[in-house]
Design a protein that fits this description.
The structure holds two protein chains of two kinds. In chain A, about 30% of the residues lie in helices and about 40% in strands. Chain A is of the alpha+beta class. In chain A, strands 1, 2, 3, 4, 5, 6 and 7 form a seven-stranded mixed sheet that branches. By secondary structure, chain B is of the alpha+beta class. Chain B folds into two domains: about 110 residues, Rieske Iron-sulfur Protein; about 240 residues, Naphthalene 1,2-dioxygenase Alpha Subunit, Chain A, domain 1, CATH 3.90.380. In chain B, about 20% of the residues lie in helices and about 25% in strands. In chain B, a hairpin with a 5-residue loop joins strand 8 and strand 9. The two termini of chain B are about 15 Å apart. Classes of the chains: A alpha+beta, B alpha+beta. Chains A and B meet through strand 1, helix 3, strand 2, helix 4 and strand 8 of A and strand 14, helix 9 and helix 10 of B.
Chain lengths: ~170, ~425
Amino acid sequence: MQMRPQALPLSVLEAQYYVDQFNARYGDILDRGDYAAWIELFTEDCLYKVIPRENHDAGLPLATMALESQGMLKDRAYGIVNTLFHAPYYQRHVIGVAQILNDNGSEIRATANYSVFRTKPGSVSEIYNVGRYLDVFLREGAGLKLKERVCVFDSEMILNSMIYPI
Amino acid sequence: MNFAPQALSTDGLPRWDGEGSSRIPFWAYTDPAVYRRELERMFYGNGHWCYVALEAELPKFGDYKISYVGERQVIVVRERDGSLNVVENRCAHRGVRFCQKPRGNARSFVCPYHQWTYKLNGDLAGLPFRQGVKKDDGEIQGGMPPDFDLKQHGLTKLKVAVYNGLVFATFDHDAPSFEDYIGPDVLPWLNRIFDGRKLTILGTNRQRIPGNWKLMMENIKDPYHPGLLHTWFVTFGLWRADQQSRMVMDEHGRHAVMISQRNAGGEAKAVTEGVTSFKKDMALNDARLLDVVPEYWWKGPTVTMITLFPSVIIQQQVNSLSTRHIVPSGPDSFDFVWTHFGFEEDDEAMTRRRLRQANLFGPAGFVSADDGEVIEFSQDGFRQKGADGATICELDGRGVAPTPHMVTETLIRGMYGYWRKVMEL
């Protein structure tokens, strides 16, 4: 494959930088369980979905988690902290370098592979969920917000339950 | 009472001491030999029908999907005439699980190993070199014995019942009709949802739960826990003990329906005082998560949870509908496959509503995620104690009877009464 001889335009590098930084922060926030900060990464009318690849590829709409606003993200966060009874576990996100698909100046479409490891107290680490993010970012001031994040996961079985977001 | 399995019989299986079914020995959940007998008697024999698919998953001629009856993998496939076949995914020749794509469309099944080819009904259509290979000098080498009969070497065929969009199968060709299997007490509740209307498939969720498969059946025969474990149910009045409800079972105690009618929720001393999962001031930030719209076919109840022993749970909880297929895998694990559906008559708003309410269910559900978790903890507890422990199921007595309220564990006792009889333990 021929390497591109010229330097990339600054705007492309900038989008790449912003999205990768965003994703690094996103993973860190979830791994720390800071759900208030997680909610703030999204726009008010956001879409957040965790969907089996099986459904996504077949064009079937059912998701494992499907939240359609910041309000629903809040309801999920409340559930995690206050209502869902579950064994606690750590999450560790490893998010790959994003692929910028489109950038029109106000909206960036991108995708990135992710893997999430789960570690229960007193137990070994397990590969919990593997997939890719399909994202739409909005440029807001100096930063980005997620208008849409669809987590399409390959994992054909969820290891019992999914409590925390991906 | 003593539940230790020291009373081993000649078959090597433990024996359940005492009468009744209100104290379930831990070995019923952990013993590998007991589990093997369960597979033989509950999933493969004794007239039991197992759920394999919804008809709407296979709309066209040749459409197939891989499913399970117990641990045995089967293929459900649509015939040219519109009927459905269920055949075991195991080549008659060398036992190969030949079909590897979970869904697809086929005109025949060919085992990749030696190209044995089967019709969609499981008949062996042909195999390479059956008549041997003719050399240039006319000599014929090899070939199957002359008395080899194609008809005797098809795939294992299951008896199939298609009931208003549900597909069930059994290895037991002497099984009673599906309607007789379900029985007149439970069948009307099935008909309420599946009255012949065309279904639409919304999608699948799969979870692997490290617990005995019966714990999931019990969970949906246990009206005691939802208003205690599940905040959403008690707080929003979706399931709690001050609702009008009733527990229905078939004459054998194996199938059941938990039926109830939603109330306004909120504080009510008798059912919320001291209940830590009740959240007095909880309100949704986005009310669309629970935007319930009554449907004409409900005719009263807002929730019916149907357990069809041994393989499936059918859920209607307000506008959310699903089948939950139990696929056992050893005594201490099962896969739980959710298929959410709606009806062709649904408008777009209703489809969206069903999808939003799906957030309550499945492996991440606001209410269902906890069920998988407690099942895992139950199994951990059984394992820890060893053989000489038992669970207690004595809420509302020790007997078994249909019950006009939900403060009861009668349905669990009903299932184990039946289980003891069939298992001869």
